[in-house]
Backbone:
């Protein structure tokens, strides 16, 4: 049984894992969908809206402060109790051949936008959860690439390592708060990411994004890190548990030393 939320913000909702989340959430969850492809977002809205479900779309570029601020404002007005930070970009190829702007965009979207969206929206998520006697949710889509350096995806993997570490730390910091925090780390998934990144090879064993979204929602509130993949899942899950335990131990020690 997955936890039911009243209203969710999904970034990068126009395709791939983000779009799969829109279909995996129950019809009782209102949706605020953001991305850069307005036509795809509108198609999602038309397919998902019902007489009992509110669906709104916002085309925004999270590589810009204007885009981040627009999403924050819309999410606060929407009254979200679930944030799914899914948007991500990254160029494939040798580091020295990557255009500098592509590297800037990778850090802006994967690191800065994720950090600021979480920082600005967490207070409202927690306040609404306390007021309603419920639990909010936060899912940050990292990657199995977050656990290892990945040549030809150097900046992308580094940015996802940041997302993973940030989310693990927040899960420990917020352990006593009414919010469930999950770092989602899928391996290669059938989406447009490879195409947009410039990767032209095949992806044998790539996962179905529907499976990734459903598994993440089922794990929320039960695990802090979910690694998905036929090989990476079993191999890295042990590492994930150890990292989570370390983060919790550090949190307890620092609280005691700080008198919190």
Residues:
């Amino acid at each position: 049984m997955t936890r039911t939320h009243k209203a969710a913000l999904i970034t990068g909702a126009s395709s791939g894992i983000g779009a799969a989340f829109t279909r995996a959430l129950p019809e009782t969850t209102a949706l605020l969908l953001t991305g850069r492809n307005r036509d795809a977002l509108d198609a999602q809205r038309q397919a998902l809206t019902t007489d009992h479900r509110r669906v709104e779309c916002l085309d925004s570029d999270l590589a810009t402060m204007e885009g981040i601020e627009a999403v924050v404002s819309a999410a606060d007005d929407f009254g979200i109790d679930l944030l799914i930070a899914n948007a991500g970009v990254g160029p494939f190829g040798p580091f020295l051949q990557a255009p500098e702007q592509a590297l800037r965009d990778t850090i802006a979207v994967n690191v800065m936008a994720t950090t600021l969206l979480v920082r600005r929206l967490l207070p409202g998520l927690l306040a609404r959860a306390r007021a309603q006697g419920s639990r909010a949710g936060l899912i940050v889509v990292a990657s199995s690439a977050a656990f290892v350096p990945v040549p030809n995806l150097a900046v992308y993997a580094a940015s996802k390592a940041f997302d993973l570490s940030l989310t693990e730390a927040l899960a420990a910091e917020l352990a006593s708060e009414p919010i469930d925090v999950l770092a989602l780390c899928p391996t290669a998934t059938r989406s447009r990411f490879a195409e947009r990144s410039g990767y032209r090879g095949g992806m044998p064993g790539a996962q179905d994004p529907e499976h990734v979204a459903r598994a993440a929602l089922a794990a929320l509130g039960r695990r802090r890190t979910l690694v998905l993949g036929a090989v990476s899942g079993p191999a890295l899950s042990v590492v994930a548990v150890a990292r989570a335990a370390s983060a919790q131990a550090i949190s307890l020690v620092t609280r005691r030393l700080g008198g919190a």
In short: Strands lie at 7-10, 30-35, 55-59, 82-85, 136-141, 179-186, 225-228.
